[in-house]
Write a structure and sequence with these properties.
By secondary structure, the protein is mainly α. Among the domains are: about 20-55, no CATH class; about 60-85, no CATH class. The protein is built from five helices and two strands, in the order αββαααα. Strands 1-2 form a two-stranded antiparallel ribbon. The chain is flat and about 60 Å long.
Length: about 100
């Protein structure tokens, strides 16, 4: 669809011969793991804080975690976490 959308904007035909993602959410090729690495058991793990550094942190205490697990309706307590956002303002998801 990408090539088609660009071609439509330019008013001509178009197609993709190759598409390569070089970065996604701060993860570039220098941090990529190949299929061969996985097959051979060579895996480079990174600290969780680094892997999720682009996401907003939400700390939940033991009592509230238990209530969430039990699907207790605590909308008033969760409202400020209902629409967490990334540092750049994009919405991260919903609880």
């Amino acid at each position: 669809m990408l090539a088609s959308d660009i071609a439509d904007e330019l008013g001509c035909g178009g197609h993709l011969a190759e598409l390569r993602r070089i970065e996604s959410d701060g993860f570039g090729l220098e941090r990529a793991v190949t299929i061969e690495d996985l097959t051979n058991g060579v895996v480079r793990l990174m600290p969780l804080e680094d892997a999720l550094s682009h996401m907003a942190r939400v700390d939940v205490g033991r009592d509230l975690a238990a209530e969430i697990r039990e699907e207790t309706d605590k909308k008033d307590k969760l409202e400020k976490y209902r629409h967490p956002r990334f540092q750049d303002g994009r919405q991260a998801g919903r609880l």
